């Protein structure tokens, strides 16, 4: 007997023809053939490659951490802080600074223990003593000498400038990192103020004005040092250049006392840092002084950005 032919698996409907589904859409019409949309930071898309690319955890649309410019700026600031505090030189500077201010604080306490000593004239000495200016004159070039000189010597400046970050962001990030370290040096001196306040009445207004002057003058000096660091690949040369640029600024008060020309004396008096600090330490905050320091700081940061852009264009 002949075997009956087995029907195909799954069976066919009556008539022997398979039932076909409606034809699918052509691939060209679907989404699979479309070009991928380029990431757009304004829409909150993830950024691409590069030293500052990609959003960190928690960064989202509309948040500060999600803003690409803010993220890159904070990344540079954090990088500079790590470079400072992972270096033994930072702790040598901090130890020397605390030793100097400890000696000044001991002199203030000794002055206050003198019978009949005017109590209100002791604390301003913390801001107006000669050691304050010597410290700024020598330490600020040391703080800023590595900002760009080290990057140029190691060859990482090209990577930094070719990444999706502007020269302005790089300059502001490095400057802010240096300023933060400078202000950190002064933070322990607040303990001296608290100790003196517990022993004798102290007007906190002049104290706050004195610390404001420290921040303004420090920013001014650091902007000069940052500019000097872009001019060479050698850190020692950068420190010497910054020191040479600070000498005329530092010497304006001395030149004022030596000049006999009233016009020159007025000009030099406007630039006299010694008189400015004495005014601030008495609690006098002159807006002209504030504008001067902010304008001078912005000017040197602008020069730094221009110099950095010119070196970027130079092959």
Brief characterization of the structure:
The protein has 315 residues and is mainly alpha-helical.
Characterize the structure shown.
The protein is mainly α and 315 residues long. It has one domain. 63% of the residues lie in helices and 0% in strands. The chain has 14 helices and no strands. Helix 2 (88-112) packs antiparallel against helix 4 (130-144), helix 4 runs parallel beside helix 9 and helix 9 packs antiparallel against helix 13. It is globular.
- The count of DSSP E runs of length 2 or more, i.e. the number of strands, is 0
Sequence of secondary-structure elements: HHHHHHHHHHHHHH
What is the number of domains?
Answer: 1
Mean pLDDT: 76
Proportion in helices = 55-70%
The number of helical elements comes to: 14
Distance between the termini: 93 Å
Defining key terms:
315 residues, mainly alpha, 14 helices, 63% helix, globular
Which secondary structure elements does this structure contain, and how are they paired or packed?
Elements: H1 68-85, H2 88-112, H3 125-128, H4 130-144, H5 149-154, H6 156-162, H7 167-186, H8 190-199, H9 204-229, H10 235-250, H11 252-258, H12 262-270, H13 273-281, H14 287-313
Helix pairs in contact: 1-7, 2-4, 4-9, 4-10, 7-9, 7-14, 9-10, 9-13, 9-14, 11-12
